[in-house]
Amino acid sequence: MIEWYVPLSIAAAVIIFNLNHVAEHSTPGDYFLSRQELGLKRGTVLLWMSFFGGFSLVAPVFVIYYFGWPAGVGYGLFLLLFLYILLSWLFRQVGNDPFQSAGLLGHYQARLTKKGYAFLLPLVILANMEGLLLQLGLAQKVFTLWFPDLSKGAFLAILLGFCFVIAGLGGMLAIFRAGYSLLLVCGLSFLFIPLYSYLGDGIQAVFHSYQFFLKMREAQPVEMVFLLIVVPFALMGILMTHLFQWQVIQSIKPQYRSQVRKLSVACFSSIPISIGIYAIYMLSKHPAFTFIEFVQHIVEVPGPLIAMLIVVCWLASVVHSVFISIFSMAVLFMKSIPGQRSPRNRIRSLYLRSGILLCLVFCFHVWFMQNVQFLFMAYVLLYLIVSTPLVFIAKSRGRVSGWTTGSLLLFWMLGQILYGVTSQPYWPMALCALISFLTGGSVYLKNKKKSEYFAKRG
């Protein structure tokens, strides 16, 4: 049994640590931090933070369970390399983009027609609300395993209240300070948990028991194919839609961009490695024949100390996701607040809108949110369908029409309807992947023709 006041005490300490940065912004630039202002430390922490969410905790466990440790480690290294390559491309794209001062939304506005941007905007907004919708929805389901004496409404109110104080009222600097503190706590936990487990039982004994488990279980080719195909494209979709990551990349000083890119991926790699090592230990001690059973073992079996550290790390991942969503919504709100208002009034309006949004999110989760599985599938389809087209739109020399982004919005909705009717994830994913490839290919070919035309004229 984990006492809920332990993470609550950590949250109170983080708030006290950030009090001097809460609601102290006189201009929007103070809230968002001025462009080209992030150094090596801030840039690395904020970019590392953006990767540390619920997915980064679950994916290593999923990989180890279905692939085994040799193939799992190989696939994990491939994903880290793929993430580094994507970041390298994105850093170059942001550095060479003449519209980078306008942010991610300005980047797409410059490359899409008015209708094209109008069709893409709902997808971008939904992608940036993942922390407030999907991550909180999953947290609402999971927390009852650890905090059975705490009501659902109380849990969400405490979590949203904490995130509003830090991200909604504190801005980028408070997010950095809070995220840095939580990453230090999680880093020590990820180091301590595997060491304590393996030193207690012995490395040879653990791997001997794990090999016995591998001989007993059957391969799951469908799940393997699902993971191999979906995850890389989901990473592409996330990087091309998330306002927070784009803002961080734009705000890093040019001389530090190369080091930040390398350090953030290197620091982040410690998380899946530690979780994968601990997953091997749990499978050796408590074999499971379904993935759900395996996750239950991780949650329920450890002793009080290990369980408390797991809870803190899980809550930190949820908090990071909510931080990022709140900040992304603040970017969108600031775009809609009239520029003729005084800077202080714009900041106050930003605080008010953020508070109202979190109240609406609270009501949504308490009274209306029922099917988290459907919401999870909606986000998988969203990231899958926008991945390839947005990469080629980012490289487009001309304006892309509304037919392109309109088809993405339409077929994303059709994919959800197909999933609701069939309850099978593979056909909707196949549909969205096909539309993504076709749309991306169409944008690429049109861009190539335009490049050839300009080359002939030049």
From TrEMBL:
Keyword line: Membrane, Transmembrane, Transmembrane helix
The UniProt record lists the keyword GTP-binding: no
Entry annotated with the keyword Transmembrane helix: yes
Segments traversing the membrane: 6-23, 44-67, 73-91, 117-134, 154-175, 182-199, 224-244, 265-284, 304-329, 350-368, 374-393, 400-419, 425-445
Name of the molecule in the record: Sodium:solute symporter family protein
Lineage of origin: Bacteria, Bacillati, Bacillota, Bacilli, Bacillales
